[in-house]
Amino acid sequence: MPDDSELHDLHDGGRPTARLIAFVVLLIVLVWFGVANRGEVKVSFIVVHSKVRLIYALAVAAVLGALIDRLATLVRRRR
């Protein structure tokens, strides 16, 4: 359960903060992006061939890209 300080971050005298507005705008854009990319595409990866919705292929690619970025950052920091 959020404490009072976290609740005050969400609004300032009843008005939404810039962070809340940015979150809502980002959410709307992501939902629109998902709806716009509902079509199926053929995906071939090494020996696996499949038909998936484009939004799922993009989401998997984004997550894998973020994970590879984090791993590369960790490797560079250890050197």
Q: How many strands appear in the DSSP assignment? A: 4
N-to-C SSE string, H for helix and E for strand: HEEHEEH
Physical arrangement of strands within the biggest beta sheet: 1-2
Counted by DSSP, the helix tally is 3
The helix-and-strand class reads: alpha+beta
Low-confidence stretches: none
Multimeric organization: single chain
- Major sheet description: 2 strands, antiparallel
CA-atom Rg in angstroms: 19 Å
Helix content: 55-70%
Which of globular, elongated, flat, extended, rod-shaped describes the shape?
flat
User: Average pLDDT across residues?
Assistant: 83
End-to-end distance: 41 Å
**Beta-strand content bin:** 15-25%
Characterization of this structure:
Helix content is 65%, strand content 20%. The chain has three helices and four strands. The chain has helices at residues 4-10, 18-36, 54-78, and strands at 11-12, 15-16, 40-45, 48-53. Strand 3 and strand 4 (48-53) form a beta hairpin.
What's the topology here?
Elements: H1 4-10, E1 11-12, E2 15-16, H2 18-36, E3 40-45, E4 48-53, H3 54-78
Antiparallel strand pairs: 1-2, 3-4
What structural keywords apply?
79 residues; alpha+beta; two-stranded antiparallel ribbon; two-stranded antiparallel sheet; 65% helix
Give me a quick take on this structure.
By secondary structure, the chain is an alpha+beta fold.
